[in-house]
Design brief:
- Strands 5, 6, 7, 8, 9, 10, 11 and 12 form an eight-stranded mixed beta sheet that branches.
- Helix 10 packs across helix 11 (163-173).
- The protein contains 20 helices and twelve strands.
- It has helices at 4-18, 23-26, 30-33, 37-52, 54-61, 74-89, 95-107, 115-126, 140-146, 151-161, 163-173, 223-235, 251-259, 272-285, 287-290, 332-335, 340-356, 378-387, 397-405, 411-416, and strands at 179-182, 194-197, 204-209, 219-220, 241-244, 264-269, 295-299, 311-317, 359-369, 391-394, 426-427, 439-445.
- By secondary structure, it is an alpha/beta fold.
Length: 446
């Protein structure tokens, strides 16, 4: 009998290979929730680990095929990758269990004739030494090969941020990311959770042990994402009318509502389903705020907003390639192509210009992404300023000092973020900073 965790992992990996489904959503399915805690953890490890190391696993598998250039079926390729990941990267999985279950998975599929090939290849891999990462790399190509990233992606990061930073990003992406929560009330009951302080925000906590799912009022949110919302909340003193143009899933909106209790907030998203999920999140984590009439929800395309210029604060957290979140969403590395970036930029420009039209005189807008790519960040800001000279950049660093003075940012955190805000913008780099990669810029109507 095939172990339940391997069976479900195999189905999830096949679905990711065949569709645009996301691993984080599939791992929150009812099928996964129904597993025991041990099998649920193993399923998460198998799915995310196989995706993280897929390029390196394929490089191991290909030379062992009778025809190395032959196109494998998704069923055979997935079984091989799932088995090879366990053999090469997991210490507590017996080789026979990894091999036998991979073979049985193929036998139960439409590609049962590939079972013999899967068995032979995995037995050869089991006899090979496990990969050992070098302490240092001498080129982007070495980083990409050893850390299972597309070469083009690492080359861009090395050119933009330096080889050491590209290596740090790559290493960070290959490790399970920390679970970080935000405590709206630092006195919240969390006795069954083992927590430690966040890296730079006073209200952030990292979960070392325990099941966060048992605390529906707690919001899981990366610390860099929290920081963007804190910057937005501090950007306009006493902001009274706020627009969040791409609001779902709602973590940043919740922080704005906490920090600016007198403000009217309009949360816009193109997806009614995502907005409904956002309402549920706010009802659990901020019941007092969610029950108030100052929160308004609107289904709309942010590229075509038709709003009066009445908002003194706008948060414009646009859809992007997500290359700053590959540690959490490892399949991004296979789905993003350099040709996608200009298309993303066109959409981001449309959202930003539409949002700026709703900004009141002397109002401020915070533009943010979770992308590491300049086309989606600095280039978008430069393009909109060329087209709309009535706007100007507001440097981020003074706002970080303001957050420090307010006790929102810790002293240690302010020092840690020196390299993240040494110009006009905020830029966190995974591995260089202990969080996801985020970009933020502040624009002001002159």
């Amino acid at each position: 009998m095939i172990a339940p965790a391997r069976q479900i992992s195999y189905r999830i990996l096949l679905q990711i290979a065949a569709t645009d489904a996301h691993s984080d959503e599939l791992l929150r399915s009812r099928e996964v929730d129904a597993l025991s805690a041990q099998d649920r953890n193993l399923t998460t490890t198998l799915v995310l680990g196989t995706l993280r190391w897929q390029l390196a696993l394929d490089a191991r598998i290909r030379p062992l095929l009778a025809r190395p250039n032959a196109k494998l079926s998704p069923e055979a390729a997935t079984a091989l990758r799932l088995g090879a990941f366990q053999l090469l990267h997991l210490d507590r999985i017996p080789a026979h269990a990894a091999i036998n279950d991979s073979v049985e998975l193929v036998k139960a599929s439409s590609e049962k004739n590939a079972a013999g090939m899967v068995n032979a290849v995995l037995r050869k891999i089991a006899a090979q030494p496990r990969p050992v990462l070098p302490e240092r790399f001498s080129s982007p190509q070495e980083v990409a090969a050893a850390l299972a990233h597309p070469v083009w992606m690492v080359e861009r990061w090395a050119a933009r941020y330096g080889l050491a930073a590209a290596e740090a990003i790559g290493r960070w992406n290959q490790e399970p990311p920390a679970v970080t929560i935000r405590l709206s009330d630092p006195a919240s009951p969390t006795a069954d959770l083992q927590l430690e302080p966040g890296a730079f925000l006073a209200n952030a906590r990292r979960v070392l042990q325990g099941n966060v799912a048992r605390h529906p009022a707690l919001r899981v949110q990366d610390e860099a994402s929290q920081l963007v919302a804190e910057i937005a909340a501090a950007a306009v003193s006493g902001a009274s009318n706020i627009l969040d143009t791409c609001a779902a899933p709602g973590g940043k909106t919740a922080i704005l509502a906490e920090r600016l209790p007198a403000a009217q907030i309009t949360a816009v998203d193109v997806s009614r389903k995502r907005l409904d999920a956002m309402k549920s999140l706010l009802a659990r984590s901020l019941p007092d705020v969610a029950g108030q009439t100052r929160l308004h929800f609107q289904v709309a395309d942010a590229t075509r907003l038709s709003l009066k210029s009445s908002y003194d604060l706008i948060l414009c957290d646009v859809p992007c390639s997500g290359t700053g979140t590959i540690a959490r969403n490892p399949e991004i590395r296979f789905r993003v192509d350099p040709a996608d970036l200009p298309r993303q930029q066109a959409r981001q420009l449309a959202i930003l210009k539409s949002s700026l039209a709703a900004l009141a005189p002397s109002g401020r807008l915070v533009y943010s992404t979770c992308s590491l790519e300049p086309e989606e960040n600095e280039s978008v800001i430069a393009a909109v300023l060329r087209e709309l000279p009535e706007f100007r950049i507001v440097p981020v660093a003074p706002l970080l000092d303001q957050l420090l003075a307010a006790g929102i940012l810790t002293q240690q955190g302010r020092e840690l973020l020196r390299t993240a805000a040494n110009g006009d913008f905020l830029r966190t780099l995974p591995g260089v900073h202990p969080c996801d990669g985020f970009f933020a810029a502040i624009l002001e109507r002159a």
